[in-house]
What does this fold into?
Amino acid sequence: MFHSRLFRFCYSIAALLVLIGACSAAFAQRPPRTPLPFERGEELVYQTEFSRALLRGVDVAEFRFKSASEHISRGSDDPVELHLTGDVFSKGLFPKIAGFKFHQHVESVADVEPFTALHTNKIEEQGKRSRVIEAVFNHDTHKALWTERNPNPGSISIDFSEPIQDVLTVIYFLRTQKLNVGDSFDVPVSDAGRMFRLSVKAVERKELNTVLGKVKTIRVEPALFGDTALVRARGALSVWVTEDDRHLPVRAQLKVDIGTFDIKL
It folds into this structure.
């Protein structure tokens, strides 16, 4: 039973690639585009601690996010493509507790204007098992082609609505939005041949002590768990994001059956 719960936790942690940046609110009109902060390149590293009963502050996982931009000529304008990389992997005592290691690697390409996913490569590793999948998003036909390379080769085509995101591009898309307490909104997301709508609610303002010093943040609650959500299990997630223009996620807390996971920049 405990191993079954740990397996669900691994999937939840991997799903946080969607959510660690879920830090914005309703879709607002934007002025003429100025370069986004992460277009100039950015690397974010988050550490995850696990707490359960007498077990406190045990390191179990690490998140890494990188962004880089490339100007692609498509006619009279030169829009920017973002090349994004996300990794989450087990560390510390987790392999000893669970009996296996996990790692998820995602590489995504996104168009900046409008901000949408173009291509996704994803590798999921748990113990000796590995799954390799990719997606191509066709914005003319509004269809996404998901192809599994390993271990069960095959493809599936699904319809999507704009602005479509994958589990990594949604992090950066949400950081481009304005944030107001009380707002709630949905974002269409596609992952591994599935479509779902990520619902997010901005809950409260709070000052936090972080590696950046004392910062003003807004706490948001993404609907990660549920029968129709990304993770079909019970749980709750809160994410604290700075109120400045970067909308930088500085802390998250994941509560599931097996315990609480604190994630900090």
In short: The mean pLDDT is 82. Residues 202 and 220 are 4 Å apart (CA to CA).
